[in-house]
Specification:
This protein is α/β, with parallel strands linked by helices and 488 residues long. It contains 15 helices and 23 strands. Strands 15-16-17-14-13-19-20 form a seven-stranded mixed beta sheet, with helices on both faces. A six-stranded mixed beta sheet has the order 10-9-8-11-12-22, with helices on both faces.
């Protein structure tokens, strides 16, 4: 990536479907994690901009055509959004990589095309949605309706910006909601591309606003009395603050928060199949993923073999320019995020874990917020590096004694988002999967599928995104009591 990359500058905000002058003069500077230089600039939305966006959304929902269209009519418009994202997916992927340093091969597949797929599966679910049904009641017939929840505040993170946006925007739009999208200040540029696509697709006035801003403006948005639902992806701490703010208005919430997912290797696991998948699941997006397999559980009988093979695989990962297709590990999104990983590496050493690979900043990369892919061995699950979400390329290898011990360790976490098990048979692996308290789990594979519900137990969040459950999160259920038929 060259230092001469031109700065992408936007001077307006997308409020209610119109490009509008911001209320304030402050801007957000987007800094490349590779060059540490500015690559973009957008207006910083203020509470006044939030008021305008919520008012436009309120008008669109309360009096506009969008929630009153048939589901088929909304599907036509959202299909054009999906097609527009597909047509520009390479540009979208490059924007994400430019902002957060995600390796370009991952950005194409997991940032851009996965977002397109999420729109596609939401469209399929919507096509089969029944918005009204009659049921027999005890005292007479019932008409059960499913209606849009209203105005949605969608607050999304920097690590997988487009996929997390798609998981909220697609079902919300198809349900008939109006949306105020607040992208992360680290990655606002791809949200502008999305706004362009939605504008071209013909969303009615007021249905979508895009407001890049920091936490202060976000806090104002999620506590706004004009918002009916908040959909958030981010940290546990921020999720708790949002939940507290939403409580004042009894605003509905969906919270997709952190993870400390465990991968269990059983004694009869096929290591040739498992280890490449585990390395990918642990270090994808430079470890900046809520579903990252940051705890790898190895049986004591095979611990030394697994440790040696994992160490070799992690050491072989190429660290460098995220626009190079051969790069496996790009920079972390900010200098603060890099320092967080380095601090946890120091903590791991102090706690007595054995450093098997990595542990510092690559010597050949003097510019950029890079951290070597790091593997700790001899980790006790009670250590901070095993209990706290690091959100960087730092992975723990933990020894267990028997199957019951492996299940105990996997569940000994404040989180419950994802995980995987590798077993000699799929049946055995599935039996383990049924015992682990996580929202998603993989057996003899490492998958994330936007057709299925996604979310977590415990501190990993509340509610589900994607699949039929994801669409249901944007619907309210109403019962209408119909008069009983006259008796003969």
């Amino acid at each position: 990536m060259a230092d001469s990359t031109p700065i992408l500058e936007h001077r307006t905000l997308f409020i209610g479907g119109r490009w509008t002058e911001p209320a304030g003069r402050d801007t957000i500077e987007v800094i490349s994690p590779v060059t540490e230089r500015p690559v973009g600039r957008v207006p910083h939305a203020t509470p006044k901009d939030v008021d305008r966006a919520v008012a436009a959304a309120r008008e669109a929902f309360d009096n506009g055509p969008w929630p009153r269209m048939t589901i088929g009519e909304r599907i036509e418009v959202v299909t054009r959004v999906r097609d527009g994202l597909l047509a520009r997916h390479r540009e979208l992927a490059e924007l994400v990589t430019l902002q957060n340093g995600c390796p370009i091969t991952v950005s194409v597949r997991a940032q851009a095309l996965s977002a397109v797929a999420a729109f596609g599966t939401a469209l399929t679910v919507a096509a089969g949605l029944t918005t009204e049904e009659e049921r027999p009641g005890l005292t007479g017939p019932l008409l059960v309706r499913r209606e849009p929840v209203g105005v949605v505040a969608a607050v999304t993170p920097w690590n997988v910006p487009q996929l997390t946006i798609a998981g909220k925007l697609a079902p919300a739009l198809l349900a008939g909601c109006a949306v105020v999208l607040k992208p992360s200040p680290e990655t606002p540029l791809d949200a502008y591309l999305l706004a362009e696509v939605c504008e071209s697709a013909g969303l009615p006035e007021g249905v979508l606003s895009v407001l890049p801003a920091d936490r202060e403006t976000s806090a104002y948005l999620v506590a706004h009395p004009g918002v009916d639902k908040v959909a958030f992806t981010g940290s546990v701490g921020a999720g708790k603050q949002i939940m507290a703010a939403a409580a004042g208005n009894l605003t509905r919430v969906t919270l997709e928060l952190g993870g400390k997912s465990a991968a269990i290797l059983l004694e009869d696991a096929d290591l040739d199949a498992a280890l490449p998948n585990l390395v990918l699941g642990a270090f994808a997006n430079s470890g900046q993923a809520c579903v990252a397999l940051t705890r790898i559980l190895a049986p004591a009988s095979r611990y030394d073999e697994i440790a040696a093979r994992l160490t070799a695989a992690v050491t072989a990962l190429k660290v460098g320019d995220p626009f190079d297709p051969a790069t496996a590990i790009g920079p972390l999104v900010t200098e603060k995020q890099r320092q967080r990983s380095l601090d946890y590496i120091r903590i791991g050493r102090q706690e007595g874990a054995a450093l098997l690979a990595g542990g510092g900043v690559p010597e050949h990369l003097t510019t950029g917020w890079y951290v070597e892919p790091t593997l700790f061995g001899d980790v006790d699950n009670a250590m901070r590096i095993a209990q706290e979400e690091i959100f960087g390329p730092v992975v723990c290898l933990i020894r267990y004694q028997d199957e019951a011990d492996a299940v105990r360790i996997a569940d000994d976490s404040p989180y419950g988002l994802a995980g995987t098990v590798w077993a000699g048979t799929d049946e055995h692996g599935t039996a383990i999967a049924r015992r682990i308290r996580t929202g998603t789990y993989s057996v003899n594979c490492q998958r994330f599928d936007v057709a299925g519900p996604f979310g977590g137990y415990k501190n990993s969040g509340i509610g589900r995104e994607f699949g039929p459950e994801g669409l249901s999160a944007y619907l309210e259920t109403k019962t209408i009591h119909l008069p009983a038929p006259a008796r003969a």
